[in-house]
Specification:
single chain; 244 residues; 8-stranded antiparallel β-sheet; 3-stranded antiparallel β-sheet; alpha+beta; globular
Amino acid sequence: MTALANPMTFDEALRQCGVTDRTLTPGEKEALDRWGYAVFHNVIDDDWLAEMRAAFEKALAEGKRHGIHVQLSLDEPAFDRVYTQPKVLAAAHHVLRRPLKMGCAIGRDPAKGHGQQALHADWPHVAHAPALMVTSLWLLDDYTSDNGPTRIVPGSHRVPNALPKSMAQPESQHRDQQFVIAPAGSVLVFNSYLLHSGTRNRSGGRRRVLQCAFAGREPAPLPQATPVIPERLSPAAHCILGGD
């Protein structure tokens, strides 16, 4: 990667991506604050969806599956628009409330009978601490009731240590849990403190998702090193991915 001669500031990157105070509706902001998540429909149009699915299948054909996870590459142009999508960036910025960067993306593709996880948060919640991460799940297939949709516990991001020990097993059912049912092309965005998990793919239907995490531009908590960013990407994308 060649360093940019004039690195872009984060605020400039947001403007270049089309993010303004009005990118999110008041209802979407309230959902992120009150419930800890939001689902944005029709983010991925049909042509882009076909390109992303093809890139996903290429990774599978190259043997990049590891269990339910699929290693994806920034070298695939099909993912270029992920890094600068205004609605998703606005949601992550609204939750984190500070300059952010996106970590490397990974695919998830649970086969029939797989995908069940215990409820968990992506980061331990310390009382009065700001959000440290935001997770986005880009749905490449419909989330149906029986192909392993994500389950969430609305509002759990506001309660430190919200998960009782009795809920620590994958088969445990939380009384307040809900399943995210949404069409392909949608994006689920949630606070890292929100209790959530994958569920078992009972039907065997495809349930491919692209998972991308956001965090503050400080060194922690994203563990990944700054990725090698393709030079074809815009200065705004370089900034969002943590490049110089």
